[in-house]
Design goal:
Elements (H helix, E strand, L loop, with lengths): L7 H7 L35 E2 L17 E4 L7 E3 L2 E2 L3 E3 L2 E3 L7 E3 L6 E8 L14 E5 L3 E5 L24 E2 L8 E8 L2 E2 L5 E3 L2 E6 L2 E8 L21 E3 L7 E9 L7
Parallel strand pairs: 1-11
Antiparallel strand pairs: 2-18, 3-4, 3-7, 5-6, 6-18, 7-17, 8-12, 8-18, 9-10, 9-17, 12-15, 13-14, 15-16
């Protein structure tokens, strides 16, 4: 089936503003162009991903496989740290919640190529709009972001909505649930590769499934995530932490586990 690209301008003109259409103002119009693309970073005129209603559950509550590392089991933050030392988020009722001004938290351990499962809920009480509403993010190696946002009836720029590789690529579709409902992320990540001379030979890539709907499949990161900028690759890094962002919203997370992908046998 042929896909038709629908611009935000066309949607607005036709009166068909969806849950992901842009607000009436122009944001980030001075940002640079994305490499090889006709879009600026955070371009408001970029095509809007189609809306898909997810099933009631997908991997919600999925138990950790036998070879997984459980990063959060609902009782403590012993696997996490912050720039201030111990992670300062609140833990209750089987979830962790961002505490205002407590800062982002990251895993104490580092990981390479992995499969990550986590569940999140944006605040049930809707406050703010666009990027100020239910904002967080999963930062792989602290550098490559998969966006977390309350995108339900919340217009924003397409490369900043929930499921986006922030500032680089909108998702193939959007499948968000209502504010306050638990949602699941399943993320498969392959780290960038450099040769012995320090030359980048393979970019980082990611497969992202939100609530059972594929957001990205083996999609490459242009570079590190930057707000309003085009990211590049820095020094070689094959392992790193998983960071959950404090963006000033009381986001909740639960049931977080990760497992090493391993390697195929070699002849």
């Amino acid at each position: 089936m042929r896909k038709t690209a629908i611009t935000l301008a066309a949607l607005l003109g036709a009166g068909l503003v969806s849950t992901l259409a842009a607000p009436g103002k122009v944001e980030h119009k001075e940002t640079p162009m994305l490499p090889g693309q006709p879009w600026h970073v955070h371009d408001m005129n970029r095509p809007v991903p189609r809306v898909v209603t997810p099933g009631a559950t997908f991997s919600h509550g999925a138990p950790a496989p036998s070879d997984a590392v459980v990063l959060f089991n609902g009782t403590d933050l012993s696997k996490w740290k912050s720039d201030k030392g111990e992670a300062g988020w609140k833990v209750e009722n089987g979830y962790m919640e961002v505490v205002k001004k407590s800062g982002s938290i990251s895993t104490k351990d580092e990981f390479g190529d992995f499969q990550l499962h986590l569940e999140f809920a944006t605040p049930a009480k809707v406050e703010g709009n666009s990027q100020g509403r239910g904002n967080s993010g999963v930062f792989i190696f602290g550098k490559y972001e998969v966006q977390v946002l309350d995108s339900y009836d919340n217009p924003t720029y397409p490369d900043g909505q929930c499921g986006a590789l922030y500032g680089q690529c909108p998702p193939l579709a959007t499948a968000v649930k209502k504010p306050g409902e638990w949602q699941s992320y399943d993320i498969i990540f392959e780290a960038p590769k450099w040769d012995d001379a320090g030359k980048l030979v393979n970019r980082a890539n990611v497969t992202v499934i939100l609530n059972g709907v594929v957001m990205h499949h083996h999609k490459e990161y242009i570079g590190e995530t930057k707000h309003g900028e085009v990211g590049t690759y820095g020094k070689p890094q094959s392992r790193g932490t998983i960071e959950l962002q404090d963006h000033g919203n009381p986001m909740r997370f639960r049931n977080i586990w990760i497992r090493n992908l391993g390697e195929y046998d070699k002849p």
